[in-house]
Structures are given as structure tokens and as C-alpha cells.
Amino acid sequence: MSLKANIAVIILTYNEAIHLPRALDHIRSFAREIFVIDSFSSDGTVELAKAGGAQVLQHPFQNYARQFEWALENAPITSEWVMRLDADEIIEADLAAEIAVNLPILPPEVTGVNLNRKTIFQGKFIRWGGRYPLTLLRIWRRGKARIEDRWMDEHMYLTDGRTVTFRGGFADHNLYDLTFFTAKHNSYASREALDVLNQRLHLFEPQLALTGEATAKQAKIKRFLKESVYNRLPFEISATLFFLYRYVVQLGFLDGRRGLVYHVLQGFWYRFLVGAKLRELEQAVKRATSEDEVRSEIARLTRQKLD
Q1: pTM for the full model?
Q2: Are residues 62 and 168 in the same domain?
Q3: Which of 15, 19, 180, 232 could serve as 87's disulfide partner, Cβ 3.0–4.6 Å?
Q4: Are residues 127 and 67 located together in one domain of the fold?
Q5: Is the per-residue pLDDT at 196 higher than 80?
Q6: Beta-carbon neighbour count of residue 43 at 10 Å?
Q7: How far is CA 289 from CA 93, 195, 300, in A?
């Protein structure tokens, strides 16, 4: 007999028919509530979500952070705990058991739970290159966490309390091909370039500076190094150094041939693309003669809805 935890799981979707049934299968044993927040999918995602026992809400998508914040404010959550999960992520059996057994006995001062995520690329566990474990705040007491208002690399952060870490298996395992992978990262690069541009020019609302108490310590350190060191170097240099650090110093070469493809694409090409797009945005902003023209050019180049 499965042991349900007092937890609600939130999954954002858009055309995730290939992934959603798998995600639901892996959380059904412990989740008391499941909410799928869908951006008007056309591939049967909504029907699969309902068939899998989820409550479905639909809302237009602007970016991940805004969509997830909308979910927190509008989903009829009654559970004590909330979990953020992507449709292509898997909660493995040992972590599901850990959540069911340990979540109810956490002391009141613990308001968040970090999970250690691994990356599966073309069926291979990417163990090296600093990719495992990626420690992320993914479970929190209802009302005790928010999501950063960023275009990319948004993290959950606690409003009070402290975290613990569960050690069970948690995997990012996307089933699509390289064409999808590169298209997705092309979109990610536009959004990350927009975040860096905002950091430099303060075009939009100021963004939260993560603290060790608010989220996973690893996320705080990586954010500090990216904004204080990496983003201050010419991208031709920083992207090259970052790849060499991951592939040589952090032993990415031990991931083999598929690991080489992953580390080159995600650790060099993607970082180089962010830098190139950022330079394009900066040049467009310099040419603009009004605030409206600045926003128009940014929206055109990034394909993002800024309103």
C-alpha cells in the first residue's frame, strides 16, 4: 500500500505528451495533489494529465517564472507541502519513498527540501563536468517560498526557515532529439541574454540576490560566480575557459562520446551563443532613440513578450 505525503506537485506543460505520463507515474505513489498548469497544448497533454489523476488549469505562457507564480497563486492547493517538477523530470523510487517517509517528520523550522538532480542525455547519465549533483530547492512548506522573477535560470527561494537535502534519485531525462535540444537552448540563450542585459542596464524590475539561507547553497555560489566573474569577461574568452574547466578540470571527458557532445553543446556552444546574443542586444539598445524603441528591439531579437 502506497504512503501518501501531504504534498502537492505542480507541473508546467506545453505539448508534453511524450513526458507527462512518465512524470505522473513516478509521483502518483506519494503525491496527495497534482496540478498541471498547461499553456494550451495541442498534442493531448491535457487529456493525459486528467487521465493520470491531475487537476488541470490553463493559462497563457509568458515565461517560466511568471507561469509558476501564477500557479502558486491560483491552484487550489490544500497540502502542507508543495513541489516543483518539470514534465521531463523523474522522481525515482528511492526518492519517492524518502519523501513519503521523511517529509511528515521534519521539524517546523525546516521549510524547504533540496533535491540532487542528475542529467540524462541521449540515454547517458552525465556524471562529470560539474553536472552532478545539481542541488535545487524543489519542495517547500506552502506559503514559505517564491520563485525568482527572471527570464532564465529561475530558482525557488524560501521566505523564512531553513532547508535539508533528500538524497534519493531525481533525474532530468528529456526524450527528444538533438534538434529539439538545440532549439530549446537557442530559446534559453535569448532569455539568459535578456537577464544579463537587465542586470547591466536595469531595464526592468530589480532581481533578487540569492542567499544561502533562501535557497540551495550551490545555486547561490554559481549565481555569484556567473554575475561577478563570468559575465564581466568577453564571451569569446569566458565561454572557452568555462568549457575547458568543465571538460578538463571537472573531468567531463570521462563521460565518453555522448558526454563530449553534451559538454560541447551545453558547456561551450550555449555559453558562446548567450554572449553573442547579449552583444547583439546591447548594440540594438545603443541605436534605439526612445524607451519604446528599446523594448521593441529587445522583443524582436529575443522573441519574448515583455508586457
Answers
A1: 0.91
A2: yes
A3: 19
A4: yes
A5: yes
A6: 14
A7: 57, 21, 16
